[in-house]
Write a structure and sequence with these properties.
CATH topology: Alpha-Beta Plaits
Number of strands: 6
Number of domains: 1
Low-confidence stretches: none
Strand order of the largest sheet: 2-3-1-4
Structural class: alpha+beta
Distance between the termini: 9 Å
Length: 114
């Protein structure tokens, strides 16, 4: 499995607008092979921004990489950056290869990094 995350420093007065962009966007993730789940996460409030993260789970790094090169990726990001600035700079990407997963039934899965 592979987890792709983008961390966003959202301007204090833009949190609602930032959330609306995500909540009203047309998602194409479910169309891609290997897509498992997506989460939009709201983190702590800081003095000058709110922390958010987009969190996408993929079956493999190869599936994630195929997503980034797809037409669906281009469509999903077509509105990014339009309108007034909502964030402090660009998002910070973080990618993780899952090496262990423990599920609610106690199953432990280990996976070698790809």
């Amino acid at each position: 499995m592979y987890i792709a995350m983008n961390r966003f420093k959202v301007l204090k007065d833009s949190a609602h607008d930032f959330e609306q962009v995500w909540l009203t966007r047309e998602s194409h993730l479910h169309e891609l092979p290997g897509f498992v789940a997506f989460h939009l996460l709201k983190g702590p409030e800081k003095e000058d921004h709110n922390l958010y993260s987009s969190h996408t789970v993929w079956r493999s790094y190869g599936d994630f990489e195929a997503w980034t090169k797809s037409e669906a990726f281009r469509k999903s990001h077509a509105r990014a950056g339009g309108g007034k600035p909502l964030t402090m700079g660009h998002p910070e990407f973080e990618g993780f290869h899952v090496i262990q997963e423990v599920t609610s039934d106690g199953t432990v899965k280990r996976d070698a990094a790809e």
